[in-house]
Amino acid sequence: MTNEGKEKPRFYTCDCFTTDNIFLEEYKLHVRFVSEQQFRLDYHALLKKLGCVTDEQFEGVLNKISQEVDRRKHLGVTSAQRAAAIKDIYRPLHPHVYHLQESYLTSEFKQIVEYCQSDSATEEGLLGLLEEQVAPRVYRFPLFDKSFCEDLMEELKHFEQSAAPKGRPNTMNQYGILLNELGFDEHFITPLREQYLLPLTSLLYPDCGGCCLDSHKAFVVKYDMNEDLDLSYHYDNAEVTLNVSLGKEFTEGNLYFGDMRQVPVSETECSEVEHRVTEGLLHRGQHMHGALPISSGQRWNLIIWMRASQERNKQCPMCNRTPTLVEAEGFADGFTKHSDPPQNISCALT
């Protein structure tokens, strides 16, 4: 299930990355910005209804968007610079957490994976092993050992308090850590995706690329009483998402799931889901969801956006158009050129 000896494809981003899905926190609104003229035509009236009524407020919005567009344009370079600086100056507190070991995983999860790898595995049989379906096609299961979560939390806190440079995960999460910059990709996230998660997603999500996941973006988000309290309703830039509650002590802050993003909000009924420490939630990336505010304490979540190039090469999930590819670093946004050799994964989508 690994890709040793295989030529790795080059990954790309879509050109919509710099223009689409820019989140305006103050107005809880995702916008598209191609030009000021286009933006005024598309959003001026709507922003007025949401409280952006003065010229100064509107100019403030334009300024924030300009800063975000500039950040995205230079993200590849700045991220590589941060990763190099981290490698040079940061000394890990717990070096062992950067390498995935079976002892970090619960016996229940390893049993589930073993079943999925068997010749007789079926979706029905897998559903019988999973703890529960907490919302439509949202599955919860015990993933990590508690002592590993504690060590990982200590490592992340140690990094957070260090002088090393840090980048924010995305426009919606102001506080957190990009795990590829910290050095988790090669020996932790990639084997977790390829060896342990892919057998599950192949059975659970064959219709949306679950058997073809060949890249990812992994990060940790932090919710704190003095920082981000919650997360607005949204969908992910992913085919399948894993969300793991790492700790610490907190109250409330449950997740909630609506419908797929194509369904109007007025026709959606949300399900509230308790997110328990050490447990993972699997869901489709295009499944609308959010996080309610915590009322005390601090919560850290590990998020892995898993991508299937065979799916997104046909249509970008963020702009709904055939992707126009732009060169980028690492896994980028998971697009490949059709001529790139596929990794050691076969996928027959239904």
From TrEMBL:
Chain ranges of the Fe2OG dioxygenase domain: 214-308
Single Gene Ontology MF annotation: iron ion binding
Span of the signal peptide: none
Keywords assigned: Dioxygenase, Iron, Metal-binding, Oxidoreductase, Vitamin C
Domain of life per record: Eukaryota
Cofactor: L-ascorbate
Name listed for the protein in its UniProt record: Fe2OG dioxygenase domain-containing protein
Organism: Astatotilapia calliptera
